[in-house]
Amino acid sequence: MLIHEQSRPGRRATAQAPLTTADSSDLPTALRRKQRAALPEVSELQAVRHYTRLSQQNFSIDTNFYPLGSCTMKYNPRACNSLASLPGFLARHPAAPESHSQGIMACLYELQDMLKIVTGMHAVSLAPAAGAQGELAGVMMIRAYHDARGDHERREILVPDAAHGTNPASAIMAGFKVREAPTGSNGDVDIAALRDAVGPQTAGIMLTNPSTVGVFDRNIQAIAETVHEAGGLLYYDGANLNAILGKVRPGDMGFDVIHMNLHKTFSTPHGGGGPGAGPVGVSKRLEPYLPIPLVEQDGDSYRWLDEDDRPETIGRMTAFGGNMGILLRAYIYARMLGAEGMRRVSEFATLNANYLLKRLQEAGFQAAYPERRASHEFIITLKQEAKTYGVNAMDFAKRLLDFGYHAPTTYFPLLVPECLLIEPTETEPKEALDGFVEAMTQIRKEAEETPEKVKGAPYTLPLRRLDDVRAARQLDVAWKPASQPASQPTSQGA
Amino acid sequence: MLIHEQSRPGRRATAQAPLTTADSSDLPTALRRKQRAALPEVSELQAVRHYTRLSQQNFSIDTNFYPLGSCTMKYNPRACNSLASLPGFLARHPAAPESHSQGIMACLYELQDMLKIVTGMHAVSLAPAAGAQGELAGVMMIRAYHDARGDHERREILVPDAAHGTNPASAIMAGFKVREAPTGSNGDVDIAALRDAVGPQTAGIMLTNPSTVGVFDRNIQAIAETVHEAGGLLYYDGANLNAILGKVRPGDMGFDVIHMNLHKTFSTPHGGGGPGAGPVGVSKRLEPYLPIPLVEQDGDSYRWLDEDDRPETIGRMTAFGGNMGILLRAYIYARMLGAEGMRRVSEFATLNANYLLKRLQEAGFQAAYPERRASHEFIITLKQEAKTYGVNAMDFAKRLLDFGYHAPTTYFPLLVPECLLIEPTETEPKEALDGFVEAMTQIRKEAEETPEKVKGAPYTLPLRRLDDVRAARQLDVAWKPASQPASQPTSQGA
Amino acid sequence: MPFIPHTDDDIAGMLDAIGVERIDDLFDEIPTELRAKGLEGIPDGLSEMEVAQLLQARAREDGQALCFIGAGAYDHHIPAAVWQITTRGEFYSAYTPYQAEASQGTLQVLYEFQSMMTALTGLDVSNASLYDGASALAEAVLMAVRANRKVKNARVLMPRSVHPFYRRTVRSIVRHQGIELVEVDFDHRTGQTRVADCEAAGDEPFAALVIPQPNFFGVLEDVDALTDWAHARDALVIGVVNPVALALLSPPGDWGSEGADIACGEGQPLGMPLASGGPYLGFLCCTQAQIRQLPGRIAGKTLDADGKVGYTLTLQAREQHIRRSKATSNICTNQGLLVTAATIHMSILGAEGLERVAAACHANTSRLADSLCEINGVEPLFDAPAFHERALRLPAPAANILSDLAANDILGGFDLGREYPELDPALLVCATELRTDADIAAYREAMARALAIADAA
Amino acid sequence: MPFIPHTDDDIAGMLDAIGVERIDDLFDEIPTELRAKGLEGIPDGLSEMEVAQLLQARAREDGQALCFIGAGAYDHHIPAAVWQITTRGEFYSAYTPYQAEASQGTLQVLYEFQSMMTALTGLDVSNASLYDGASALAEAVLMAVRANRKVKNARVLMPRSVHPFYRRTVRSIVRHQGIELVEVDFDHRTGQTRVADCEAAGDEPFAALVIPQPNFFGVLEDVDALTDWAHARDALVIGVVNPVALALLSPPGDWGSEGADIACGEGQPLGMPLASGGPYLGFLCCTQAQIRQLPGRIAGKTLDADGKVGYTLTLQAREQHIRRSKATSNICTNQGLLVTAATIHMSILGAEGLERVAAACHANTSRLADSLCEINGVEPLFDAPAFHERALRLPAPAANILSDLAANDILGGFDLGREYPELDPALLVCATELRTDADIAAYREAMARALAIADAA
Ligand SMILES: Cc1ncc(COP(=O)(O)O)c(C=O)c1O
Ligand SMILES: Cc1ncc(COP(=O)(O)O)c(C=O)c1O
């Protein structure tokens, strides 16, 4: 039941609103609202009960193993939440003067610094609000670089076919054309095809390494050389940083610009779809273009750098400098890990992925790249199962929910048919991985014996399988009052 | 699965313990632990996931209508939790000097004051940690009073047969004998029997009014007179204060001493079995005996009163003066309500109870006291249903769980056969009451048509009906390691 | 090992199963010369206790000054229930609800949020959030240009009375898509954007007009006239609105004779703490006609296999993960948790509660402005009805006054001269429902002192 | 109406259904002359916002001084996860788990808590909490007297080295049950309770001996000798223990040749904030033989109708709601939410984590004591191994020194002379793992200054 359906006119059992209605009669009538907005009228208890019960209908890290590939669903330490929510941090206005901001600025400055070190980049801006915004900032900096050199013909960005959808979309937003770079059958970028693709039109290439097919591209140096020689720059999609933290640095691989999804590698919560944070790091030649604001250390204190300090900046990505609360959480996480802890992240993420891959292979599942090491994630393809039993990747995914496991990413990357992209992360114990293998094995047995059962899943959740087609065809994206309610005049300041 | 069963030796994936083990080698070996305690070794994620999932297996106010009679399960405002948890309050050591305690002492002082006003008593102590401890303090004060007067023969406390079990148990702890006072067939105390029962041995009587049968004893003045004339004192069990808040005051009814369950009327959380707070209020003649500490206003500041200030005090009930965090929550709640809000509490609690009673009666259920008004709660008896369908009160209770309603209190008070004591509280909307009536009606229909179905309930919860007899017969009250684990020496300060 | 649950036995068993000797072997596809030698400069790990001590000290450092700055971020009371529920693990640690059956909590919240935002804005549909108000405006601009089939050029009229940071953000984001942002000046007497100012932008057609309500100065625009004027020129109208103000003000859907086409803004006033500027929540609503141009997630109602009502992400063909380079936007991760907070916040307050909050802010800000204007030399900058913020002319350099006030732990407002040199010295002030009479008196006193000092100097 | 959801329509409909005209009619069984006329003196209701402002001001008033007081309440680090989970509505707002099927969360937590407490104390069974450590000791005394079948008299030996507030509480609670509490002095050189001190209590049999470990002074008692001595006299042994200290110290179940019979104490160090003294958590464990004398709730394992494992309250025949006047105690509501916190706390820290915390407290307190004893005139009061607390002799009146320190926002310890005049002037100090070297240095400096002033005066 929607909260709106629990609403009753005149109900407002909360202690929240000011007890009296202040005078607002000076507001011109013509500009006033004529009828109250149809927001729910419920008691505080009803709201609490409603949203508490709704929350229970979610899978989440805090309740389930969640091996969603490319998403790095690992434990979000609770300390990050409580410390980022200290009153001093919550109360600070974004336009507070630097005199009242040194505490948070110290955190931000140190975070910039740590991100520089782990990525091997020359400078970092924390401004972008998520990975995709980091990408946009990144490709805009590439554009600014070429433009500043008068190199106006470089209007094409290469993007591997396996890349995340945000990569081409971001390139387009920055005014580029997108050209696909094919993935070879071994999972690495097809170098020959790449050589053919680069040219004077090449502004750059967007890669993630390990790539979204879950392998580390062994030719990365050759790729970098190829692109650089053609006059292009290399963009690193840092969504997969969890695989290499402390092991290999994008800067050392030859990348010129990188974004990081702090809501992945640095374990800030995903929140059911954000907020995230997508800081960007750059090599020296791109530094002038970094989005603002930046934090600079100035003797004993910190100060903001803005347009005045950075006249070539690509500018501001949001009104107030980014998702500060998320940056704080990432900072707290990074301080708890330290250098040693960061290295362990990638080591154990990789150990878990390779172990799980191996166990699934032993159980008869087919790896997309059986000759390769898994990075922090890997792909299995169910095309065999789909063909033999008529049970596809989506069916497996839905049936997994019945076992209490969130499904892996399905049908991404698109180039592998019936694929599951599986990322266990380092915070899951071996028992969780073993349990997952058991469930997958069981489902395959079901697919063989009673395929309809798998195709009808899920069964144990609050709802059975949902009809996506209906949702799109019979669009209903907002509750509307049955009959526009009888006009309730808003208070006229009485 | 128990958290212990998820434990693996050597697992400790938390950032919690100090990173190094400090030296403790100076502790004498003979006094040291020889073997580590068998506490679980799990990761922080495992603990978070385990307890989050466990929590989801509870019914609670925040998720369910919970009409548990005598327990006043109403909305616990979230503000009470967050404000009582302000760092300044959480950090204060109980032995902090008064100079560092004026903030909380102001709250406690005002709470004492408000409780005096709402109960009509002369003075209040916040010390008792729960209702039962308040009762103990109360009867101890009665004893101290008689003892101070040299009235050493008064060793008997009268307790109605319908009283809560804590009443007789508390009287016994204070060294009294307990004599039952019978309830008349109309729900009021049997006055004639009472008159016969009082005498020079009478120290006092423990009553709650409205009583635990859910009616207001109309003879309260006659009772008071009878007991007072016999030289006894009147104790008011304030568990039912929610029924009369702002409507009638125990002090005005003639009571000499009262405890209040702040975790009922003042909406502090029940927490799955506490903590509560059971302040006591007294008439003037009992004031010297109040348990300490008390807060006194002294000009512009507040000071503690302890044994030195109150030489006749019955003393200390806990080491540090009570459940302060709960007292703060009650204070916050009281301030949000104000006088008007308090009156509304009893009005709407009573409205809800009488409405629900009426609707249930219309649906064919039998009230225990059909001629009487319900107070904030009422009793229905299912003896008819038990006889006709073989489906008893417990079966109804269990089946209600399947409908998402917590069961009312069953088999209490004992004098009404197959009873359900139902207390909807004022914070539930009419829809919740109507839904409950529907569920009850449906269950009665099931009892008639398919009694086995009701007797087998519940079906939709994580577990079916639990075997209490087995629990008591094959006692297992603590997990023990399968084999005492191989001796793990504790660190010797290295 | 913080957060890593592997025991020595686990590690040995797992390596054995994989068939390697040590974990490092798993990285053997990385060219040796690339392997990072170390993380010099990254400090050693700290226990949670140590980090807590550090962060507590830092948070204390920033103090809790008395805040009279608004300028797009408002210090409202947030019911305690909002974040206690929002941070429940099931909301906090869930991903975007791709598996609808395992995400009904989040999905229903999104649907309810969309319902509430359409109710507030008076438009047909809402997305499920963008990063913040400024980036939402950028998306609105892009969307309007795409959506306007009648006007083929990509000119967008952007009043200077729109929040300057919003204008900068829009400029950053849309600059490479051939869009021309045409600045429209405001009337320096009233602070309003007049139709005449718009007309000064020239005769060329334009795809959209942006209308802020209230505008950055808190001044109320004549939204009806502006809307009708733009519509008469085949342009779309984008309203930039404050959702709390909408409890009292005419919703974009009611502007002019046809209503605005798009509304966007900052959701922060709906239950988000100031928190240095984020995470906040951008919202974007539009008419049914434009829904396929709307960027971002949208939750829709549907049925499950048993015919029960449920919710799922819909119209995904607009999005990057399906459409890639042809998507309406690159947005992926958005502000889901803030949407949850906003939804709970709105359901607890209801329309009447929001209305009371809005009225209290309005009254407090008026009282503050009146009180400051009692001081010699301080006077209202504009002569027009205003809401929520007030622009004041100062008799001394604003920067000095502000730093004087800050030294007394009063954040006195936003220095208008920094963004509008022609208005210097001037201050934009705001007093939400949280500012008491005593706070206002304290500000007035501190201001009087600061001005006296400035005067003496 | 805060928290009351009734609309005017609801009220009218409900009154109509009941058949009365107004709500007040429902109170017509209350004699008119008793109806309260009003609630004069109760202030008007405040909005949540206003109450928040008030409480924030009050909490600020109490500051956050640097705390070196222990004396039974310890300032430990609490993992952030503990209270974020404990305050989830399903734990926070549930009742005592009477309906087991609807309360498996709470019941399993209780069972796990009992398991952890038996592991820590080395005893067989644990209840599911009492109010606090002091009232738990009172219940332990009552229980021992009931349980001891061999000794019929009700004498209990109570060392003066037991926390003075615990002794007072025990006295209050048991005074009317014919129990004689016999005080046993301690050795003024070592601070320990010696067997010889116990023997001074006379030859009469006694039902139980209470042994604190560590004792109030932080001094470690010779628990083995005391336990064997008491057992040789047919008395039961009650250990009063600190659960964090138990991570390092021999558990009561191992004391002497047979082990203590009962252990009780304060659970506060297991995840509860200082919070002015409560709510904390009393625990009580005993041997299997005594289980039927154990007061309070006990959760037990059982099976459901399908044979699945579940948990339920058991042995309820001990309790007041079944046994009424014959119950083992009157306790009903206990400290369930704190049990939840403690259980989560222990599962996050584990035995090794608790051990490290204990060792850190021990080392910090030693460092603090050593550091203070560098100051002229400050010296250790006792010559014996100690844990967690240290008693120091001062060269000046403790009260003056403490208030001097407090003026510098340092809470310097517990004034021993108040409870033990013969020790005056002396201080009991404690530095938990949260006190840094800088904190200790700050204390030392402040103490030196305070003593210099006292000396000069
Ligand atoms: C590989 C990859 N790149 C980019 C992104 C986009 O990041 P965000 O969702 O933070 O915008 C994601 C995340 O979904 C991703 O997995
Ligand atoms: C009528 C009555 N009296 C006394 C008590 C005991 O109060 P507490 O549980 O707080 O000890 C209760 C509560 O259970 C009760 O309902």
UniProtKB/TrEMBL annotation, chains A, B:
InterPro entries: Aminotrans_V_dom (IPR000192), GcvPB (IPR023012), GDC-P_C (IPR049316), GDC_P (IPR020581), PyrdxlP-dep_Trfase (IPR015424), PyrdxlP-dep_Trfase_major (IPR015421), PyrdxlP-dep_Trfase_small (IPR015422). Residues 17-27 have a biased composition (Polar residues). Residues 1-28 are annotated as: Disordered. The modification N6-(pyridoxal phosphate)lysine is found at K264. One of its GO terms (cellular component) is cytosol. Keywords: Oxidoreductase, Pyridoxal phosphate. Residues 152-271 form the Aminotransferase class V domain. It catalyses: N(6)-[(R)-lipoyl]-L-lysyl-[glycine-cleavage complex H protein] + glycine + H(+) = N(6)-[(R)-S(8)-aminomethyldihydrolipoyl]-L-lysyl-[glycine-cleavage complex H protein] + CO2. Residues 346-450 form the Glycine dehydrogenase C-terminal domain. GO terms for molecular function: glycine binding; glycine dehydrogenase (decarboxylating) activity; pyridoxal phosphate binding. Its EC number is 1.4.4.2. The keyword Oxidoreductase applies. One of its GO terms (biological process) is glycine decarboxylation via glycine cleavage system. It is an enzyme of class 1 (oxidoreductase). Its cofactor is pyridoxal 5'-phosphate. Belongs to the GcvP family. C-terminal subunit subfamily. PANTHER family: GLYCINE DEHYDROGENASE (DECARBOXYLATING), MITOCHONDRIAL (PTHR11773:SF1), GLYCINE DEHYDROGENASE, DECARBOXYLATING (PTHR11773). HAMAP family: GcvPB. The glycine cleavage system catalyzes the degradation of glycine. The P protein binds the alpha-amino group of glycine through its pyridoxal phosphate cofactor; CO(2) is released and the remaining methylamine moiety is then transferred to the lipoamide cofactor of the H protein. The glycine cleavage system is composed of four proteins: P, T, L and H. In this organism, the P 'protein' is a heterodimer of two subunits. This is Probable glycine dehydrogenase (decarboxylating) subunit 2.
UniProtKB/TrEMBL annotation, chains C, D:
This is Probable glycine dehydrogenase (decarboxylating) subunit 1. Residues 3-442 form the Glycine cleavage system P-protein N-terminal domain. It is an enzyme of class 1 (oxidoreductase). Belongs to the GcvP family. N-terminal subunit subfamily. GO terms for biological process: glycine decarboxylation via glycine cleavage system; nucleoside metabolic process. Keywords: Oxidoreductase. The gene is gcvPA. The keyword Oxidoreductase applies. The glycine cleavage system is composed of four proteins: P, T, L and H. In this organism, the P 'protein' is a heterodimer of two subunits. One of its GO terms (molecular function) is glycine dehydrogenase (decarboxylating) activity. Its EC number is 1.4.4.2. The glycine cleavage system catalyzes the degradation of glycine. The P protein binds the alpha-amino group of glycine through its pyridoxal phosphate cofactor; CO(2) is released and the remaining methylamine moiety is then transferred to the lipoamide cofactor of the H protein. It comes from Halochromatium glycolicum. It catalyses: N(6)-[(R)-lipoyl]-L-lysyl-[glycine-cleavage complex H protein] + glycine + H(+) = N(6)-[(R)-S(8)-aminomethyldihydrolipoyl]-L-lysyl-[glycine-cleavage complex H protein] + CO2. It holds the Pfam family GDC-P. Gene3D superfamilies: Aspartate Aminotransferase, domain 1 (3.90.1150.10), Type I PLP-dependent aspartate aminotransferase-like (Major domain) (3.40.640.10).
